[in-house]
Amino acid sequence: MAKKSSSKSLPTSLQLGRAVEWPDSPEKAKLDRVPNPQAGTNYLVRFTAPEFTSICPVTGQPDFAHLVIDYVPGQWLLESKSLKLYVASFRNHGAFHEDCTVMIGKRISAEIKSKWLRIGGYWYPRGGIPIDVFWQTGKLPKDVWVPDQGVAPYRGRG
């Protein structure tokens, strides 16, 4: 029989494993971190949010993006449920593509203090122009393999 993982060593302040209210803004969203059990090893973690939405601050129309977040953890890992709630908090948030993408990268980096982090925001076209936004921090450790983010450039319907 497989051994069940124990959450006894995790802080009780985590959103993981319990019902929580959906945050209605990025400022109210809480990002949780958990200890990295492989802190002495350099490796890459990737989160993909292919259905990210926010609101255009000028028109009030929805904007859609495919986000890819890669990071090399240090002492902390980003807890995925809190990331899901944080990403969802942008649904009613008015900000430009560049601001949303960089804001998310900076917030995660500040919370988990990663060795290296990059975020790619692949935004779907508005007014016929797709906007891709990239931000990174830290220096990539030499022994870490980073695959391509895997998002094809926008080519329209042809």
The fraction of residues assigned to DSSP E strands is 25-35%
Total beta strand runs: 6
- Residue-averaged pLDDT: 92
Q: Which sequence of strands runs across the widest sheet?
A: 2-3-5-6
Described by the principal axes of the CA atoms, the overall outline is globular
CATH topology of one domain: GTP Cyclohydrolase I, domain 2
Query: In the CATH hierarchy, what is the class of one domain?
Result: Alpha Beta
The CATH architecture designation of one domain is 2-Layer Sandwich
Radius of gyration: 17 Å
Tell me the structural class.
alpha+beta
CATH superfamily of one domain: GTP cyclohydrolase I, C-terminal domain/NADPH-dependent 7-cyano-7-deazaguanine reductase, N-terminal domain
List low-pLDDT spans: none
Total helices: the number is 2
Order of helices and strands: EEEEHHEE
End-to-end Cα distance, whole Å, is 52 Å
Q: Portion of residues in helices?
A: 10-25%
Main sheet overview: 4 strands, antiparallel
